[in-house]
Each structure stands twice: as structure tokens, then as C-alpha cells.
């Protein structure tokens, strides 16, 4: 189950094929290595035994090899997917790229040039004419990133732990389970019992605990593990806790008050009347991240009411949402797979938050299989991909103070934590009334890489 599909890297006129060998699927791409390992060279061979092929490949990747034609040069420039001017000198096989809209020197001997216009993740560089692009030239093709694995959770016996009932649970070293009703006016009561490690994967199960017409007896919520002493500043009883149950859930006292004993959870316990239960896990206070490549392999279900998600939230300097920034990598509901980046607008209020989003529709057949979500993030951009297809790419300058009046939450290596969960209903999850439960989200692995350079 675990493992990555074969990967083909092409740099004209060079192609590298990385993938399955000896019938055993590799657990990671060859150009990604684990933190602390003795590095192989970038072609998967021991660094002290370079082959003749590897030496030739390194030469080509360094740009020392000749580019054979205008056509090959155009493909290299097109890979930048940016506006610019492409220049080719056939005698030495040189290929250069000048970004923007530079002028052309028509008298440069031996040179020809073409204008590059970006679209759909690549660019078209044509037609070719005599002359050389003026300006500061850059290598025609940008290098391929080299990623190093810094953290992963395979949700197997190496990380999951056995609880008092003999059930494997996600590692408490990495994850904290949320408890209670949380956000988005969702219908589920989160509890750790709904997250389990099975067959080398994380399984989050959303359950229908009762039908909507089955009214619970007594109070909807109970005050637990709370002292009414004056120094607490908050008196709780079953009646005052009633506002903490759907559809009345509040985002302030008393619903945000936590138990005063050793147990994790809200002081207003509404679990016994919950119509739905599910699980949400977060790495806050245990694992935080900034720039890098984040990858998740999962199988999801977006029947009406189901809302699986994987997202990152800024956690620094006590900055509130949306000023702290949010990155929704996997945000799926009602046959839609969405990705988005959210930050503060000029006022800084939640009501004026700015969201940049992209989405695609899926069907029931698509949801039968595992898919790979990726977030690539550096100081310049955020790109979110599904099965290698770009769903969203955002230039991070959109969140600069000149545009928003607030510090950019996505730059300068600010720390974010991860949340992984399955919600029910809420703002966009849809109506769960006609959906058969349980509904599950299966997570094969989660990996985080940092960029060590480029080819």
C-alpha cells in the first residue's frame, strides 16, 4: 500500500526514470532521502561509486552539455511557465532565459530568440527570429528540487501505541486528539476513540450515535470536573452548558472552558447527546513546520455530510485567525476537492478574511482509490497538488503588508501546525440526513520534506 509511483524527470535532452525496481515498489522517490542518512548521489547510486552514466548526467544537469536545437531550447525555457524571452546560440549550444518583456538585439551574431507566454502550468516559446534577448540572462531551465525527509508517520507499529483496551492509537508524541464541538457549526462531537491505527494506516470513523428525532432525556450537556469557586470567575451547571450543544454552540465561555482534572476535554461535556461522533488530530505543540514539501496519501469519502480535511494553521506570537494564516491542503465535501490559502484583509477581522482557492469535481469511482495530496511551500509561493496535478498556486506577495496592512503569515519561516480530521455537516459539509453511516477516512502516510537545494 505504502510507496510512491514511478517518477519520470525530464530535462531536454536528458530523461531520468525513477520508479519500481526488482518488483518491489520504492517507498520514496530517489531524489528524496531520509534525514540523517548517508546520502546517495542524485541518481540513487552510492556516492563513492559513480557510474559513467551518472557522470554524464551530472554534466548535463550542470548545463555544460550542448542544447541541440531551438526546439530543445524552447522546451527548457517553457518549463519555467513564466513570461520571458528565450535565446539560443547554435554554435556553442547555449540556451538562456531573460524574464519579463526584454528587448531583442537583432545584430547579435549566431543568436536566435523567441517570446515565451505562460499558460496551464507551462509556456509556449515561439516563433523564433534572429537576435538575442537583452537583459540579465538566467539558465533556461530551473533545477529540480532535492528534498530530504525530516518527519513521517506511517501509522503502523513503529509509531502507533496500544491503549488500555488493546487498540492501536496514533502516536501521542506526534498527535493530540481534539475533544468536543469545535468550529464551522459542525455536527460531530470529536473524541479520540474514533481514530484508530489499522493495517498500517490511520482510520478516522464518523459515526451516527442517534437519530435526530431521538431526543435525549435531561440536559443536553453536563458540567464536569469544574469548581464553582469564586476564583474561577465562571459558574457552570447543566443549564448554562446547554448552549454548548448544536445548534447553539458558542465560540466563547462557557464552551471554551477546559476540565480542571487530568482528563482532556471541555468542562461542558455534551458527548452523551451527540448525534454524530468523529475524530480530529493535530500536531500543535508537538510538531510544527514552515517551508517544505508535505505529502499525504489517503482515501476519502465526500458523501453528503462528510467533510474530510488536512490543513495547516499558523501558531506564532499569539496572532489570532485570520492574521496567523491558514493553508487548506485537503478540503473535500459534496464531490468537490478544494485547496485554499487564507489570510487577513485590511481590517484584520475574520469577517473580511481573504481566501485564494482552487477546486475540482470528483465522483464515486475516484473516491474508491487512494490519492496523493502535496503542499509545496517556500518563501515565494504555495502550490497544492492532487496526484501531481496543480490545484492551486499562490504568489505569497498577495499577503504582504502593502496589500493587507498586516505582516505576511506565510513568509520568514513562521511555524504552522497540522490538523487532520473528518467533520460532519457544518458550513459546507452538506446534509447528512440521507447518508448511511459510518463514514471513514483512510490515511496511508504523512511525510514532510525540506528543500536541500536543486539539481
Automatic annotation (TrEMBL):
Region annotation Disordered: where it falls in the sequence: 26-50
Keyword Nucleotide-binding applies: no
InterPro entries, per the entry: Beta-glucanase-like, ConA-like_dom_sf, Glycosyl_Hydrlase_16
The keyword Translocase is annotated on this UniProt entry: no
Keywords noted in UniProt: Signal
Pfam families, per the entry: Glyco_hydro_16
Domain GH16, chain residue ranges per copy: 162-454
Signal peptide bounds: 1-25
Organism superkingdom: Eukaryota
Family per similarity comment: Belongs to the glycosyl hydrolase 16 family.
Descriptive protein name: 3-1
Organism name: Durusdinium trenchii
Source lineage: Eukaryota, Sar, Alveolata, Dinophyceae, Suessiales
Amino acid at each position: 500500500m505504502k510507496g510512491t509511483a514511478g517518477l519520470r524527470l525530464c530535462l531536454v535532452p536528458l530523461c531520468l526514470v525513477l520508479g519500481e525496481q526488482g518488483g518491489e515498489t520504492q517507498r520514496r522517490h530517489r531524489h528524496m532521502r531520509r534525514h540523517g542518512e548517508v546520502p546517495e548521489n542524485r541518481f540513487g547510486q552510492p556516492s563513492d561509486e559513480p557510474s559513467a552514466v551518472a557522470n554524464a548526467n551530472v554534466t548535463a544537469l550542470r548545463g555544460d552539455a550542448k542544447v541541440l536545437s531551438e526546439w530543445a531550447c524552447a522546451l527548457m525555457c517553457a518549463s519555467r511557465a513564466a513570461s520571458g524571452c528565450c535565446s539560443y546560440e547554435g554554435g556553442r549550444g547555449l540556451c538562456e532565459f531573460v524574464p519579463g518583456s526584454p528587448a531583442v538585439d537583432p545584430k547579435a551574431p549566431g543568436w536566435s530568440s523567441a517570446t515565451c507566454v505562460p499558460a496551464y502550468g507551462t509556456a509556449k516559446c515561439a516563433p523564433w527570429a534572429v537576435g538575442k534577448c537583452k537583459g540579465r540572462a538566467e539558465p533556461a531551465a530551473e533545477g529540480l528540487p532535492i528534498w530530504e525527509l525530516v518527519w513521517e508517520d506511517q501509522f503502523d507499529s513503529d509509531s502507533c501505541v496500544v491503549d488500555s483496551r488493546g487498540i492501536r492509537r496514533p502516536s501521542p508524541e506526534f498527535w493530540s486528539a481534539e475533544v468536543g464541538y469545535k468550529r464551522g457549526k459542525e455536527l460531530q462531537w470529536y473524541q479520540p476513540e474514533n481514530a484508530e491505527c489499522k493495517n498500517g494506516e490511520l482510520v478516522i470513523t464518523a459515526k451516527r450515535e442517534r437519530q435526530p428525532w431521538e431526543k435525549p432525556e435531561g440536559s443536553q450537556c453536563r458540567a464536569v470536573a469544574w469548581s464553582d469557586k469564586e476564583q474561577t470567575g465562571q459558574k457552570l451547571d447543566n443549564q448554562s452548558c446547554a448552549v454548548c450543544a448544536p445548534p447553539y454552540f458558542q465560540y466563547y465561555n462557557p464552551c471554551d472552558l477546559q476540565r480542571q482534572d487530568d482528563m482532556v476535554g471541555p468542562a461542558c461535556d455534551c458527548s452523551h447527546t451527540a448525534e454524530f461522533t468523529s475524530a480530529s488530530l493535530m500536531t500543535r505543540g508537538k510538531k510544527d513546520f514552515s517551508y517544505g514539501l508535505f505529502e499525504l496519501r489517503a482515501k476519502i469519502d465526500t458523501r453528503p455530510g462528510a467533510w474530510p480535511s488536512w490543513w495547516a494553521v499558523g501558531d506564532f506570537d499569539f496572532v489570532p485567525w485570520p492574521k496567523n494564516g491558514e493553508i487548506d491542503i485537503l478540503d473535500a465535501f459534496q464531490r468537490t476537492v478544494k485547496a485554499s490559502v487564507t489570510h487577513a484583509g485590511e481590517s484584520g477581522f475574520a469577517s473580511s478574511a481573504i481566501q485564494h482557492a482552487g477546486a475540482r469535481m470528483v465522483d464515486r469511482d475516484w473516491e474508491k482509490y487512494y490519492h496523493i495530496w502535496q503542499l509545496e511551500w517556500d518563501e515565494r509561493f504555495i502550490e497544492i497538488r492532487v496526484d501531481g496535478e496543480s490545484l492551486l498556486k499562490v504568489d505569497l506577495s498577495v499577503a504582504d503588508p502593502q496589500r493587507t496592512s498586516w505582516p505576511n503569515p506565510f513568509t520568514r519561516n513562521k511555524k504552522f501546525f497540522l490538523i487532520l480530521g473528518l467533520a460532519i455537516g457544518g458550513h459546507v459539509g452538506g446534509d447528512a440526513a440521507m447518508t448511511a453511516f459510518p463514514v471513514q477516512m483512510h490515511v496511508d502516510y504523512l511525510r514532510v520534506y525540506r528543500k536541500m537545494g536543486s539539481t
